[in-house]
Please model this.
Amino acid sequence: MRYLDQTRLPDEEVWKETSDYREIARAISRLEVRGAPLIGITAAYGLALAAAAGEDVVRAAEELRATRPTAVNLPWALDRCLRATEGLSEPAEVKKRLVGEAIAIHEEDIAANHRIGEYGAALLDNDTQSILTHCNAGALATGGYGTALGVIRSAHLGACPRTVYVNETRPLLQGARLTAWELSRDHIPCVIIVDSAAGSYMRRGEIDAVITGADRITANGDVANKIGTYPLAVLARENDIPFYVAAPTSTIDLSLASGDEIPIEERSPTEVTSLRIVRIAPWARDVLAENRAFDVTPNKYVTAIITENGVARAPYQETIAALCKQEVPARG
Model:
């Protein structure tokens, strides 16, 4: 399996290759591979690698599942793969089935991203000249094309938006490093701003819409996404700006009633006290840091949730359930 090490971007485009599912688990934990849909896809391929090596796939699935707790796409993909092998005993058949399932999950995600892009672009009009996005929800975070960036890419084909404002997204700068890198490769103009500047830009009328991805969406429409998303949604409401969330239905967790039940990943404090290898905080015993990787945006701040099956609006309890019941169009 070959994957792009996202921790090296934008300075270097480094591809790594492995046949060990444990290395895949480490890559997910280290954020070399990141983004809710992509870690699900990657874990599915990792499970296929485990089968190819004659490993216990149930144990491998648990190791992969434990890497990151918030994004639901990870357990969703692993559970789907394990269900696909039920009743199979021959190792060769298990391997074949897991490879096929991983490829199917990957291809379905790419197709879903394009449909999300089409549905999202239809929500925007020529008056939407500037969009603000947070973190990275592009091809780097998915099987390809992107969710939030998929909407921006599709909208750009129709000549809007003219400008994309990109939150730097502290502490690991996924916006400044990754989203800006993707947009530059597509020749879509973007402006990187510090996270705390977003409210000022909104108040001055420089933002027409906000769009983000998601790592988990609950049955009532609460949304977990990269830390800093919740204040953006509140600011958007205060300034009468639509706040859109773009995500495949695999990101929706109907087993959770609200965002209060979503497990929030706590990452190393060193990601806050350092920029890569450069220490920026004092070395002092009484200087501490916390690093919650995600926050939860209550559904009342969400204008619409864009999925591959259509657009959900309040009351989300009803519209999300309806979208999740729809059949995904056949591939090809």
